[in-house]
Write a structure and sequence with these properties.
Number of domains: 1
Largest sheet: 7 strands, parallel
Distance between the termini: 49 Å
CATH architecture: 3-Layer(aba) Sandwich
Radius of gyration: 17 Å
Number of helices: 8
Bound molecules: NADPH dihydro-nicotinamide-adenine-dinucleotide phosphate
Shape: globular
CATH topology: Rossmann fold
Strand content: 15-25%
Helix content: 40-55%
CATH class: Alpha Beta
Structural class: alpha/beta
């Protein structure tokens, strides 16, 4: 029997990196999780096992956030999983996290690269959330993922950062239009964090790591725990009056 107070979060791209960490941090706080993966099925299964070891329930579903045509079938799978595992019709928290980046100067960015980034970040967040709206509880919460790069500029991220800027604007519109349902919508904007993102350069390249560390107030590069903990805190009780906001989680990068 599921306690009626059990919260369920859907986190995209939680087979690795920041999504995985967020899933585990939420599970530690007593939240059950539906997580998605694109190609990392076995990693996603590991995350499910880790969440179960924390005494929570978790289910992993495949999703390619760049393929908006698949969102209808994905929403149907979520509906079925909610019914089968939680005997519920809706979930509480949506964390739009899945994504990848590429580095190319403004002059060299191709239309294909640009289109891919639009599809993954902006179109994916927009239409996946739209499709999932009937499955999100009134009073629920949505967290969209931007980047420090939408506030400060580093060469090589014109297209990626433009998508993230779009997500920040979208967040305010979603907050306004979903406010009548009591749904809070906020953006989390991580600074450079040690994950596989960008080929893992912030983590694995000592020069890049040292340079980023020198740009933060805390003098180190961010870790997945820094972001997962922040998202879990944002989604905890007591933060119900925060909506339409951008919260940067960068250790004070480029202040
Ligand atoms: P990782 O590369 O570590 O993990 C990416 C996750 O997203 C994986 O679970 C991967 O799934 C999934 N994913 C990638 N592409 C797709 C896709 N097309 N459809 C569905 N899922 C996909 O990245 P991070 O955890 O670092 O990044 C997470 C989010 O944070 C991204 O939106 C990124 O832009 C943002 N961000 C990251 C920063 C950083 O420095 N790390 C800084 C600022 C923002 P799988 O492995 O199963 O294929």
């Amino acid at each position: 029997m599921i306690e009626s107070s059990t919260k369920v979060a859907l986190i995209t791209g939680a087979s690795r990196g920041l999504g995985r960490n967020t899933a585990l941090k939420l599970a530690e706080k007593g939240v059950d999780v539906i997580l998605t993966y694109k190609s990392g099925e076995s990693s996603a299964r590991d995350v499910v096992r880790q969440i179960e070891a924390l005494g929570r329930r978790a289910v992993a579903l495949q999703l390619d956030i760049a393929n908006s045509k698949s969102f209808g079938a994905f929403a149907e799978s979520v509906k079925n999983v909610l019914a089968d595992t939680w005997q519920q019709t809706q979930f509480d928290y949506l964390v739009n996290n899945a994504g990848s980046g590429n580095q190319a100067s403004f002059a060299d960015t191709t239309e294909d690269q640009f289109d891919q980034l639009v599809n993954i970040h902006l179109k994916g967040t927009f239409f996946l959330t739209q499709k999932l709206l009937p499955l999100i509880k009134d009073g629920g919460r949505i967290v969209n993922t931007s980047s420090g790069l939408a506030r400060f500029t580093l060469p090589g991220y014109a297209a990626y950062a433009a998508m993230k800027g779009g997500i920040e604007v979208l967040t305010r519109y979603m907050a306004k239009e979903l406010g009548p349902r009591g749904i809070a919508v906020n953006t989390i904007a991580p600074g450079a964090i040690e994950t596989d993102f960008g080929g893992g350069a912030a983590r694995d390249n000592p020069q890049v790591n040292a340079h980023i560390a020198s740009l933060t107030a805390f003098g180190r590069v961010g870790l997945p725990d820094d972001v997962g903990g922040a998202v879990a805190a944002l989604l905890s009780d007591g933060n119900n009056w925060i909506t339409g906001q951008r919260i940067e989680v960068s250790g004070g990068m480029m202040l």
